Amino acid sequence: MDRVILAITGASGVIYGVRMARELVGRDFEVHLIASEAAHIVLEQELGWDFSNGVETVFHREIPGNNLFYYNNSDIAAPIASGSFICRAMLVMPCTMATLSAIAHGSANSLITRAADVMLKEKRTLVIVPRETPLNIIHLRNMLSLAEIGVHIVPAMPAFYNNPANIDDIVDFMVGKVLDVLHVSNNLYQRYK
User: Fold this and answer.
1) Does this model's pTM top 0.90?
2) Among candidates 31, 37, 33, 32, which has minimal Cα distance to 9?
3) pLDDT in tens, 66-99
4) Alpha-helical segments (H) within the chain
């Protein structure tokens, strides 16, 4: 079973990460999920999730499957914080500029940034889906520094040539583009003809 680490940070657009988790779990990937504390707030605001019964319980209800493993972002002793944890890739989807900056500057003070740091040191696939606009020069420099060392930067910039009918079509476009980066065959979006 393929393993993927998926981090959801507190940027607007948490629906991208949730949809990716559902897609990967449905394809029998082993998904190791981390959501930042800020992501919990955005999940409540944007998707109406209620964490009063416990964070892990909600994630397992919203993303059903026996191959989903949830970690608290403060759990830096989790298996995914080690280079001995072998996986296909790590996705940060969506990625705040604060998280992107921490990764770019080696500030591994949370499980998300530690796991990303491990991906970099082990020269494994790391995909960042930044969700911010407009971008300032600091954001751009941080993205450039990551791109220069092989990190895939896939901004949440959906296309409209496929005439999306609803938000799901827009989200699926971005999820499909990230799956393309992972070389995972998909037909989540209409390809340009």
Assistant:
1) yes
2) 37
3) 999 999 999 999 999 999 999 999 999 999 999 9
4) 14-26, 37-47, 55-62, 97-104, 111-121, 137-148, 167-181
